[in-house]
Design goal:
109 residues; alpha+beta; single chain
């Protein structure tokens, strides 16, 4: 069942990525990497929010949201403890807007 959900995520995102990437002159390899990264970073869409499947930082065309995570960092935490970190992540109005931001973040036009 999980494999089917993963497949549906790829089938829904791939045409959007293909269309936007072709408009921006990306190669097929770049489009493939965009989809692969979206799947990896978002858990095949399960953890993606506001059309930001790549955890792109900053503000998008629809603003931003914050996420606080707690992680173990032996270099900065006292006694090697747990450290909270707040991330400011971009929100996008559509998957296509998210793909355009990914292209820009990866050196595209």
């Amino acid at each position: 069942m999980q494999d089917e959900q993963d497949r549906k995520f790829i089938l829904a995102l791939a045409p959007v990525v293909a269309a936007v990437c072709s408009q921006h002159g990306c190669t097929q390899a770049q489009a493939k990497r965009c989809v692969q990264e979206a799947a990896a970073y978002s858990g095949f869409g399960r953890y993606g929010y506001a059309n930001n499947f790549w955890m792109l930082p900053g503000a998008g065309d629809a603003g931003f949201y914050t996420v606080t995570r707690v992680w173990k960092n032996s270099r900065t935490a006292k006694d090697g403890g747990w450290v909270p970190e707040t991330l400011k992540l971009a929100k996008y109005s559509s998957p296509a807007a998210g793909v355009r931001a990914w292209i820009k973040a990866n050196g595209g036009r």
